[in-house]
Amino acid sequence: MGMNLIGLAVPFFLFFIGLEYWHCRRTGKNYFQFAESIANLNVGIAERLTDVFTTGLFFYLFKYIHDHYALFSIRPHWYTWILLFLLTDLVWYWYHRLAHEINVFWAVHVVHHQSEDFNFTVAARITIFQAVVRSLFWAVLPFIGFPPEMITLFLLIHGLYPFFTHTQTIGKLGWIEYIFVTPSHHRVHHSSNEEYLDKNYGDVLIIWDKLFGTFVKEGDAPISYGLTKPLGHHSFLWQHFHFILEIGYAFIKARTLKQRWKVIFGRPDDLDPANRDKLEKLLLTQSPPSLKNNKAQRRYIIIQTSVTLVLLFAICLLEKYLPASQLVVLSAFIIISLINTGAILEQKKWVFYLEYARLMIVLAGIGCLVPETTTLFILLLLATIPACFFRTMQFHYHRYLFDIGDEQ
């Protein structure tokens, strides 16, 4: 067993995010907002983490379909590679288009469009739910007869190429615009401008949009990014599940079978946008829109996100060497940290309970590494000390994060 070199994707993407950020600061372009960038990275961290546990499952799904149900026996040749590339991109186009046109698919894709920024961090806004649905669409390829090894290679391309189309720093690219998806094309796709809605679905090739009538060229008018009804929250959980809850709420309110079918398989525009407002009042405590993160919060979030990224890189690179118990503990720590970061961005003071949970996870992790009686006794003692001084520690934590410093 060797290291998983796909884990190197983490520093690879971070390098280009940092390069784009440096370029924007140097040229005075305001393409990055702190809360948006952190929220984008949080979603990407979660997706990359869950990939550790699911990527192999997708491969075996493709292999099972290929071995048992393949219509043809396709072998690697130069022309079959070209055919697979075209079919992979075509399947992506229709997955992507249906993800905008059908509620149940939009529920897993909406997270990718929530950011009101448009930069490389937005490319990270992919969820495990989207990866599952996307793989179900791609399952048609092994059914046709393409070997899973060939398919997996092109899926890596479809994970790499679109990253570089999520930027405002690259203008139009001449003749390339006629064949490939470019940043200009994808800016249109992420736009909430009415004239750009539901356009430019292509992933690598733009020819499908031109063929099926969904292509629009980027104009000179300023582009607004994000949802037509902005989400307005950076909560990690709310970003992932708000539209699923909206569907559930509308389904319960629907009175006929036809209405319920439309809730699940209708268009996102058919759902009452007021449903989200009702759910927010029911499930969220509202923060004043003008409330910004202070210096202490930003410093704490940056440190926490950096630690989370280092742990993610270690898991991705060394997953084959880590026992299941350590993978579970590290993954739990990362997920709690992502929820924690979103709560701080939202100014939620209940975040201290998550800090306590993270401490317990750290102690449990140490216990897994050194399962000796003396060590376990010391860890149990360390776990009881914060419980005895819970209110005092909570007071100082709140004082540090919420009561000092102004917006920088």
- Work out the count of structural domains: 3
What's the order of the H and E elements? Answer: HHHHHHHHHHHHHHHHH
N-to-C span = 48 Å
On the 0 to 100 scale, the average pLDDT is 89
Portion in helices? 55-70%
In DSSP terms, counting alpha (H) and pi (I) runs of 4 or more, how many helices? 17
Query: Which regions contain 5 or more consecutive residues with pLDDT less than 50?
Result: none
| Beta-strand content bin | under 5%
| Class based on secondary structure composition and strand pairing | mainly alpha
* Main beta sheet strand tally, sense and closure: none
Kindly state the number of beta strands: 0
Radius of gyration: 23 Å
Shape: globular
Describe this structure in words.
With 408 residues, this protein is an all-alpha fold. It has 3 domains: 5-212, no CATH class; 236-283; 295-402, no CATH class. 64% of the residues lie in helices and 0% in strands. The chain has helices at 9-27, 34-69, 78-101, 103-109, 128-138, 140-144, 148-160, 183-190, 207-212, 236-253, 257-265, 274-283, 295-318, 324-345, 351-369, 373-388, 390-402. The longest helix has 36 residues, at 34-69. The radius of gyration is 23 Å and the shape is globular. The termini are far apart.
Question: What characteristics describe this protein?
Answer:
about 400 residues; mainly alpha; 3 domains; 17 helices; about 65% helix; about 0% strand; globular
